[in-house]
Design goal:
It contains 1 helix and 30 strands. The protein is mainly β. Strand 26 and strand 27 form a beta hairpin.
């Protein structure tokens, strides 16, 4: 088992070995001094929201790697200075699970999902977790939640189950204190725009009255924009995406195709908010690329590639590249994990004041 990270020059250092139980971030103990330095820097950072375009901070990565739970870690954009932000569920059976990180606009907090998909806030300096007091029903969805740039609102997914239609995803929005929680419309994977006025989201479509699986191409499936205030549809951007993220200036989105099955491959694209100017960034046959996020300065994109070394295992690698496309540089590589363990990896890029 090993984890590999490249340094800023692109050279690959010697992999360091870890012992079971496996953790997606096994070098956390070695980085104790780094953790202290990072937390100190975050604690003294200015409280004001980072200007956009902002400076590029840390990458946060959240993964569920077969330890019956998930954890979040941070790293520099070159893959160095790994540090666990939440306790390792592989080493502590009572540790709480958190995944799907989303940095706040000031770079001080992260929005994340707990084990049941409920959104929580994590202070990057103190690691204190604040639960957003939302009703437990309808049940929360597993999709990544979205924090507005001003840190005042959160968009998230709920699952509504009916005998006639089965399970249906809905996009909800709430203030971060849990008040003013309301349904916007059917959909999933909400992403709040930088100005807070628009939400990009995905609909899976229906077949015979039931919600379709991702990538099935059913009637009504697509990637859309809606009003964050009313939930009214603005326009359809294209087919249903597998992941979404806004450019810092709010003019474009980066997305991946929806994966129809475990071994399907997907590429990355960008599109303008008017639905035009579609550009393909990657074209690979041996891996599924998704979870792309824009850098705060708008010049780069980081993304996750999923590969299958064999029929039973899956492996994730984080890359970064220019926002216009081109060669990718490897940042982080996970160890192998069993496909049936529900493995995943999602990232977010921290904005810092200039």
């Amino acid at each position: 088992m090993r984890i590999i990270a490249e340094d800023a020059t692109g050279a690959e250092p010697a992999p360091f070995r870890v012992a079971r139980p496996w953790s997606p971030f096994p070098n956390a103990i070695r980085c104790a001094a780094v953790i202290g330095a990072l937390l100190t820097a975050l604690a003294v950072a200015p409280a004001a929201q980072a200007a956009f375009p902002g400076a590029n901070g840390l990458l946060a990565a959240g993964g569920a790697f077969g330890c019956d739970g998930s954890m979040i870690a941070t790293m520099r954009p070159d893959g160095s200075d790994f540090a666990l932000l939440t306790p390792s569920v592989c080493e502590d059976e009572e540790a709480m699970s958190y995944e799907s990180p989303d940095w706040s606009g000031d770079g001080r907090r992260l929005l994340a999902n707990d084990r049941v998909g409920a959104p929580v806030l994590i202070d990057a300096a103190t690691r204190e977790v604040t639960r957003i007091p939302l009703p437990a029903e309808p049940f929360f969805g597993a999709e990544k939640s979205s924090l507005s740039r001003d840190g005042l609102r959160v968009a998230y997914t709920r699952q509504v189950v009916t005998p006639r239609r089965g399970s249906r995803s809905e996009v909800w929005i709430s203030d971060v204190d849990g008040t003013n929680s309301r349904r916007l419309r059917a959909g999933t994977m909400p992403r709040i725009s930088p100005d807070g006025r628009t939400i990009a989201y995905v609909t899976r479509g229906t077949s015979r009255g039931r919600t379709c699986a991702p990538g099935a191409g059913c009637s009504g499936a697509g990637t859309w924009l809606m009003s964050a205030r009313t939930g009214k549809r603005i326009r359809r951007l294209g087919p249903a995406a597998g992941s979404l993220d806004w450019a810092p200036d709010g003019r474009r989105l980066v997305y991946s195709g929806a994966r129809c099955c475990i071994d399907s491959n997907t590429d990355l694209h960008t599109v303008r908010v008017d639905g035009r100017g579609r550009r393909k960034l990657t074209a690979t046959r041996r891996r599924a690329e998704s979870g792309a996020v824009w850098s705060p300065d708008g010049r780069q994109i980081a993304y996750v590639a999923r590969t299958h070394p064999d029929e039973e295992d899956v492996q994730f690698t984080v890359y970064r590249m220019r926002a216009s496309g081109g060669p990718s540089k490897r940042v982080y590589r996970s160890d192998r994990a069993r496909i049936e363990e529900g493995t995943s990896l999602e990232i977010s890029w921290q904005p810092l004041p200039r």
